[in-house]
Design a protein that fits this description.
Blueprint (H helix, E strand, L loop, with lengths): L9 E5 L28 H13 L4 E5 L9 H9 L6 E6 L4 H11 L3 E5 L5 H8 L4 H12 L7 E7 L8 H10 L3 E6 L17 H11 L2 E3 L8 E6 L5 E5 L12 E4 L4 E3 L8 E2 H5 L5 H13 L25
Helix pairs in contact: 1-9, 2-3, 3-5
The chain binds iron/sulfur cluster.
The site of iron/sulfur cluster has 12 residues, from loops.
Amino acid sequence: MDGHGRRIGDLRVSVTDRCNFRCQYCMPADGLPWLDREEILRFEEIERVVRVFAAMGVADVRLTGGEPLVRRDFPRLLGMLATVPGVEDLSLTTNGYLLERDAEALVGAGLKRVNVSIDSLQRDRFFQLTRRDSLPQVLRGLEAIARFPQVRPIKVNAVALRGFTEEEALPFAEFARSTSFQVRFIEFMPLDADHAWSRDQVLSGEEIRAIVHAVHPLEEVPREPHSTARVYRFADGRGEIGFVNPVSEPFCGDCNRVRLTADGRLRTCLFSLGETDLREVLRSGASDAEVEQVIRDAVWRKELKHHVGEAGFQQPPRTMSAIGG
Ligand code: SF4
């Protein structure tokens, strides 16, 4: 539990800060100074932390990056975590570029759900934003994982940027209507490496919803507890579309999430300005009970909410690429 009476049930684990894409809203073209190998948690250390969290009732584990599939032998880690008692839901957030290569191994290891980040369905615009001409490969990855019915739901997450995503709204709506993939638009958040974020770059979920609704009428689906998305079904029954609006409609009230960075820092909020060094604790010979106590103390101080858009808001020094969403 945190100090606001919220029960933590969802752990996001960043397994690497490295990525094979260079998305404009995330990192510079030349990438960032990557963490050294010995700074990164080893598979056994990640497994130990997940085991301690699972013993405290944290049943949902999402693996993120950077780009998690660039971490060598990643499916082996997934398999280790799939056997941890108490882990009920094991999911992945990926840019999809290596998904075709790894789909079978991931499913064999126990993957249950996957979110694929795709910001445009138009090849040139995808290239423009990610600095990679990789849309066809990403779509092949999506098809590859979709062949496994045991991996559901499969979500496609698109970051919403003013002056870019307006043109993507209807193509993504068509995509959601003609496939089994759940499309979600995510408002641009101040976690970019350039610290260039400003409120006027945010295209709100409501604005995109209006663009889609004008062509394909939408009906709101009741919100699930802890859900980050406002979900709508198409009135004619052809699928769903969702909006994750952390800037215009924060959902911190029933937040049940905490994060572990690739270098073993516990972040109790996406926008935390402080972190707890679990790697130090793990490598100091501490017992599981001691690790648990460090986690409980940190989570008890979890932030009530973020302050994006408020006077005095401070962007965290750690960027999205080193947090993993
Ligand atoms: S901003 Fe922080 S408190 Fe709000 S939903 Fe995200 S992680 Fe939870």
